[in-house]
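Minutes, project huddle
Topic: does the predicted pose make sense with pyridoxal-5'-phosphate bound?
PN asked that the exact inputs be recorded in the minutes so nobody has to dig through chat later. Recorded below.
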Amino acid sequence: MAEVPAATTAVFKIDLARVLSNWHVLNRQVRPAFAAAVIKANAYGMGADEVGSVLARAGCRLFFVARLDEAVRLRQVLKPLNLTPQPMIAVLDGYVAGHAGDYQGHGLMPVISSIEQLREWVSENDPSLHHRAILHFDTGMNRIGLSLTDSAEVCLYSQSMLDPWWGLISHLANDEDPTDPWVILQKQRFDSLLPQIPHQRASLAASSGIGLGHGYHYDFVRPGLGLYGLYPIALEGKTLPLQPALSVYGRVMQCRTVDAGAAVGYGATEVMEDGGRVAVIGLGYADFFPRSLDLNQPLTVKLAGYQVRPIGRVSMDLMTLDISQVPPDRVKAGDWAEVVGDDNSVMAIATAASTSPYEVLTRLGSRAYRHRVQP
Ligand SMILES: Cc1ncc(COP(=O)(O)O)c(C=O)c1O
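Predicted holo structure (tokens), as shared on screen:
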């Protein structure tokens, strides 16, 4: 454990060297296509300023964020790096009418997802800039995106442009299963759009889609979660060597003995029939562990080299571990429990809380101490 302030009880270790390595792995995997980096929602909690800077310095030339203000901030962080060419920053929310100055002033690209946005983009910006946008078509997810029926109007706009659109993308609803008929249908629809809409680059796959093989890579891929190494992506029977970037530690606040038949935590949900010992950790749902965690799931935390079980309800600032099996002299107040690390994954916690690793990451609490490992 790195040096942390004495009053700290919860630490997020964010390994930027691993993020960088993951990006290289994905970028190599998709050659001759390239990997952009999706760093919206503060780079899935890992820190958009830091992740963006590290990847931009390493040669990543296209970033995706969701909101316009995320993009403006990212540009302010990347500009002083004086990279040539400056990385492109694409705004997944698209074009926000009346904000032409922001897009032009900060060199941002809208990911246009409706015909209204397209009209506004074209009417509010100089014709020489019109092609500097990415068109996002919905091919079957029924979330955000231009409809396939919009393609005729898009083609009309395209005719008056000097250059083809910078990019054309779609997003898969279920990108883990190449046999899923919806994945196949979405790909067919995307393929049928490509000859209709003049474009310079095409992209369909996010992280899992990379595992669907080269037919899904087109000109670039858009990994988010994979950059943070959170789950292995099956690839032609192999697994990509992605490494989890986040480790989470909680400090032992106290150890206590529990009498036989006594309960632990709010709601007395856990009764220690035979009694035992618990370690109370200074990390709760305000920091990390979702309160909805189902503690009947096989979930463990590493403490003093032992894998021990969380018991009782997670409270706002604290959680409790059953350390009955750990020799008493091995654990004391001030020690650190590894809640997430190479042995205990965010995925396991997400599963036990009936949610996804995306949600666990993007809800990392603000008060925990962030220790960033530089490449
Ligand atoms: C349009 C788009 N592309 C790429 C991504 C990145 O997806 P993932 O984190 O699964 O790689 C997202 C994530 O929400 C997205 O909405």
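Observations noted during the meeting:
- Residues 38, 92, 171, 206-207, 222-226 surround pyridoxal-5'-phosphate (CB under 6 Å).
- The first helix runs from residue 16 to 29.
No decisions taken; revisit at the next huddle.
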